[in-house]
Amino acid sequence: MMQSNDISGIDQLYRDFILDHYRNPRNAGTLEHPDATSEALNPLCGDKIRMDLRIRDGKIEDVKFQGRGCAISQASASLLTEEIKGKHLADIAKIGKDEVLANLGISISAARLKCALLGLKVLKEALALKDPEL
Asked: What is the CATH code of the structural domain delimited by 4-130?
């Protein structure tokens, strides 16, 4: 059985993990001539994310994102780009809220939920613009 100080230690590991993705985002930047792109703003807190996708043979060949905002929104987008690179579009279309929140590894309050899911919203919009069937 875990003691309460063990739980806080695990929580701290996830917080450090999130801060690492915030400070050193993976797949940061933009793509020249992306096949799909989208951008969204969370007006409640000012978080902003843009995502560019290069799609080849039904897979994400490359993905880049740019953004500004809180550690949760930026880390979540960074983690999401790592997850989708190389995956088939049909598999990416199945990614939902639960997977994104599981990637973060910590409980997200209702107030921060839109922050955590902004990257997913942008990804889904970019894919819908490319292929409305997704």
From this structure: 3.90.1010.10
C-alpha–C-alpha distance, residues 88 and 122, integer Å: 17
* pLDDT (tens digit per residue) in 71-129: 999 999 999 999 999 999 999 999 999 999 999 988 899 989 999 999 999 999 999 98
| DSSP secondary structure code for residue 85 in this structure | T
Most distant CA pair in the chain, distance: 53
Query: 20 φ, ψ to 5°?
Result: -65, -45
CA distance 114 to 109: 10
Residues present in the chain in total: 134
Taking a C-beta distance cutoff of 8 angstroms, is the pair 118, 51 a contact? no
Q: How many CB atoms lie within 10 A of CB 101?
A: 17
125: which 2 tokens?
């919009």
